[in-house]
Records
---
Amino acid sequence: MFLKLKNGSRVQIRPLKRSDDAKEYLSHINELVKERAFLLSNEIQTLKKERAWLKKCVKEVKSGKAVFLTAWIGRHLIGLSSGISQRGADSGNVEIGLSVRKQFRGQGVGEALISETIFESKKKLRPKNVYLRVYAENKPAVSLYKKMGFKKLALFPKWSLNKGKLRDVYYMVLK
């Protein structure tokens, strides 16, 4: 799938591949951590850890437990989304995740990734529920998720540590 941005850039949205350059994933996550973006991870990663993460993700996809989609401009990773089947008592539920580099936010990349991730997750993972977590103060993300059909299910006050502070988190479920 391809997406054309307002500036004319052509973005390819495709599944994560084992042959992808782990350095691109490392650059992506570390740029977001340095930005102190609204992520669940606050740690700078190493290439060794990122290679192991990529290998684990490919294994989860092959075993039918996850969907990972990526957004690329040329050979540069600009976005990543996931649909991950939960385990145990929560099996049957799929958690959606999304990250987009700062310079590409608000241009449709996140919307395209979420839309395709929901579609692929429903087809391959067959969830009872599709949900996500989002920092309450991340208003652009909350707005996007509402637009995509998610509704606020619960607010967990002072739930996750971000930028050195405990922050409120919404759990949202796809209607």
---
Amino acid sequence: MLPSSGFCAPVKIAVLPWKVNSPEEMAFVRDAMRDMLTSRLGSNKAVEVARPDLVVDAMAGRGGAVTDALALEVGKKLSADYVLYGSLTILGSAISLDGRLASVGDSKVSPVYSKGVGLDSIVSMVDKLSND
């Protein structure tokens, strides 16, 4: 009998582009969200993160808001086990992270939420989300 540790395939997760709601242009925050989540999740040997360019290709031609159905469809295209997506709202110094983790296998979607103060808090919110 083989030991269970080290012989299991990693869980594959696709990180979709995050929507940023802010009165100011915050494209750099949107890109940073994807990059931070991808690097933190990918640092765990038990997790394989879908390449961002493949995620973009899988979403091609699908404008508008990301819905649970779209996230699951993209996850199936990428052969992912999970899809992580959501939005970040920035109003003054208040920051709110509203994410969703979709399980492609059973189509269950779990909400994740975090709040902080100031742009610097985004890093700790992403760290917490990645660890959870």
---
Amino acid sequence: MHIMARDILHKVKTLAGAGRRRQLLVVEACASMFAARIILLILPFARVARRLGDFVAPADPRVAQRAAATTPDEAATARAIGWAVRSAAPFMPFRSVCLQQAMAAHAMLRRRG
């Protein structure tokens, strides 16, 4: 069996055993990445960038402040969304680059407050 096909089969089996909640997160991640792809195709990047907010460097004090205010449940949700986006990206019918993945994760996090 071809290595790529074996990898895909392994990922499908892993997702099948991941539980309903995680499976739904992957479906949501796919839909969010597809929406991000469409947005990036039809809107000028400057307009998209304004909607995403300001760039904040990892060393910025606001990053540490926000991290300190994060509850364990919020951190678990963020990790689960990150997992779902990373898991779904290779299966998209287009090359899902980091910007599309970040936009998908951002949208999924915003939906959860």
---
Amino acid sequence: MLLFAPRNIALLMIASTPIAVSAQATKAAATPSGAVEEFMRALADSNLTRMAELFGNSKGPVVKTKPKDFQKKIVLMQLFLHGVQAQTLGEVPGANGMRTVTTLLTSHGCKVTIPVNVAKAPEGWLVHDFKLDDAAEVNRPCETSRRPGNRRN
């Protein structure tokens, strides 16, 4: 169950505010790990425009392809993971020409390891997909004896 603090409710209202679209060409990351690192840095900085430039599929970033409700998805990712630190641990080939970047998320002593799928687009590498529910586990209370990537049952 997700609980929203007043700050989060205010940020959720931003979902109705359009994410600014740059007239310039967007710059994606040069490597799969770089895409995850840059995306998480933009998330930490609450830079929704940059997040939209770094999130997408092989056709391009969502700021250009404009899939339905992409703005809400960007805002929700920012809400769930604001303040989380990320460290890429490695990458392996994934399905359909994608790469999977193993990523360690840390927040207040809690750690979760998640796979982040990254797609190659004409602009460069873009974060394509990760399980937000799994990533959000890092913000739930954890035991100090809990090892990275292990969920409490």
